[in-house]
Predict the 3D structure of the following.
Amino acid sequence: MNSPLQQLTTLGHQLDGTLQRYKSVLYPQRYWEYRRWLKQQRRDIPQDKPLVVFDFRDTRIDGPQGRRFYCLFMYFIRAGFYPVLRENYLVLGNIQDKHKKLCLQEHFSVLLDERDLPQGYLLVTDKWYSGLAHKAKKIVTVNYQPDYQSGDSCFPMPFPMFPPIYAAQQDLLLENYRQQARQWQIFFGGDAEPGKYNKKSIRNIYAKLSRAQLLENLARSLAPGSIIELQNNTARQRAEEKQHAGLIVMNTRLCKVQPEDWLGTLARSRFFLACPGVRYPMSHNIIEAMAVGSIPITQYPEMFFPALEDGKNCLTFSNETELQIAINNAMAMNESAIATMAQAATDYYDNYLAPTASIHRLINHNPNRISLRLLPFLKSGGGFA
């Protein structure tokens, strides 16, 4: 059972999240800005493309800084759908904020009158019943529940890349990155602020080593010269010119890498050390690493659906001793074995994580009404939907 302090902390996060989700109704100026934006939006709906209509009521669809809505939106665009957003101030009032504003780079229509819709679209909604359901060919109902089990009837939504990667269209250049020369054996890149990445939920609820614990352990235990910690962009540029047979750690708080350069940076490495995120283990960078053919070294293979397999498409560990073994195995692996595992990692991405493949699997998951579990890896108390 959670302690009173843990319960208070959870309540505080939930209240803060609620305030962030509903702040659009608290500030009248935002409403008038929204009305001006709405007048400028396209209403006509193309007849020559498959349509996906988004009809949401719950602001949890936004997730952290709007990234959840945007990534779902982009998955359908990558799969060839034209998006139509049903007008709803509570959901669209913040479309010009943070990651959600990246939607504005794409072509879409805002639906004010359902009579404008033709028959036979795909409806994606989190409502128990949507008034747009009767004209839909298929309905995808989104739910935010934790504790997904493989036997559940819902479809587990794959975790996406970081939103600016899609906005920069870098996910469309994967074949180029997969052919890139690899001069680093093992790489970790990401925010490495110890206070931020050492939450109790990672250790107590998910039973994983936190990002801070992993990096501290390796800094302490690897032989001198086996680990290079990049402290600025000058050091990063020097490292890009050299071969390194050990681990390179790049703290993105110190080394700023633009979205256009991120996948190319990942693709310099044969292996990627997948450290946990803030409140739950899953993180965007493990998805991006697999996409470019960098083999993940991970302690959460079971959070993929289907699970990643040790020795096939990843190397796994569950404690500090096994971490050392996995790192040593990665440093000692021959080129032939690395090539086989890298191909398996990219095959997994293409089949189970890529937007087009994921949307096709979603649509075929159930002939009629499809349930989409948005965060299938989430455990109760281990982060917020």
Remarks:
- The first strand starts at residue 51 and ends at 55.
